[in-house]
Amino acid sequence: MCPKSILEVFGKSTKNFIKLKNPNKELCPFIEQKCNKLSRLITYPMGVCSVKINSENKNIKTERVITCPQRFKENNNIFNDVKKFIFNDEECFIINEVKQKMIGSFDYIQFTKSDKKEEVKDYAIIEIQSDSTTKTGSLVQNLKDIIDTKENKKNYDFGMNTYNTIKLSFIQMIKKGQFAEENNRNIIWAMQHYVFDNMSERFSFSDDTISDFDIEKKIHFFLYDLIEDKEKNFKLTLVSKYSTTNDKLNFAFMKKNNLNESKMLNLLNKKNKLESLKILKI
């Protein structure tokens, strides 16, 4: 089992965690409000910002995975990066949760104003994609251990629900990407390398699918990671930028997989032998 445990609670690294007098009064430092994630298993907010897991990448010992979208709001880093790379440092304004019929809500619209200061001159769509976990009970136990005793064991058996995260987002990528291209606007998907790399592997993204950042294209991936500083805290940092088109993204998503059916048949035969008493017969 891949070792997993909480990395940040209420914006604080578990490496430097100080016992809280009252978790119910803790504010999320990224939105300066009370955390709104709740669980019926505890009486205070579910203030988990990120977790750490052993990496499958041989070059990286530990993955630091953001599990709350509010964690991406640190110091307005994403908005400042969009301002720099999309709007050439022009003064920007941000509106959240903008609904568009038949597409859904855009997480954020970042825009510039005309000289008249009353009309929108240009805008970009920003979508934030955090990951999620399974086995909430185990994650809650990890949180309780930290809150009650400051103890953070090396391993809890919650899981990463990354494929579900990708399934819930890729249709939006197509529909919202189509809207952006048709209207000659930029859309930025802000996520971590961990999620992006998982998606790239599952859908066999190639160099033809994804290119280095190109402002002439309208669909962009801004990839962030949590970088540890000298005080053992973690800073949200832009580490990569890529671009693509809706046609290339759609082609990758619709590409036929190379699964070998013999493996499926072997699995079914194995389960038939091991779980014959559990198999429904009608």
Q: How would you summarize what this structure contains?
A:
By secondary structure, the chain is α+β, with helices and mostly antiparallel strands. It has helices spanning 77-85, 136-149, 162-182, 193-202, 246-254, 261-274, and strands spanning 4-9, 12-13, 27-28, 33-34, 48-54, 62-66, 93-100, 104-113, 120-128, 133-134, 159-160, 186-192, 211-212, 219-228, 234-244.
Salient structural properties:
alpha+beta; 2 domains; 7-stranded mixed β-sheet; globular
Written account of the structure:
This protein is α+β, with helices and mostly antiparallel strands and 282 residues long. The protein folds into 2 domains: 1-68 and 131-160, no CATH class; 75-129 and 161-262, no CATH class. 27% of the residues lie in helices and 30% in strands. It has helices at 77-85, 136-149, 162-182, 193-202, 246-254, 261-274, and strands at 4-9, 12-13, 27-28, 33-34, 48-54, 62-66, 93-100, 104-113, 120-128, 133-134, 159-160, 186-192, 211-212, 219-228, 234-244. The strands form 4 sheets. Strands 7-8-9-12-14-15-13 form a 7-stranded mixed sheet, sandwiched between helices. Strands 2-1-5-6 form a 4-stranded antiparallel sheet, covered by helices on one side. Strands 3-4 form a two-stranded antiparallel ribbon. Strand 5 and strand 6 form a beta hairpin. Helix 3 runs antiparallel to helix 5. The two termini are 37 Å apart.
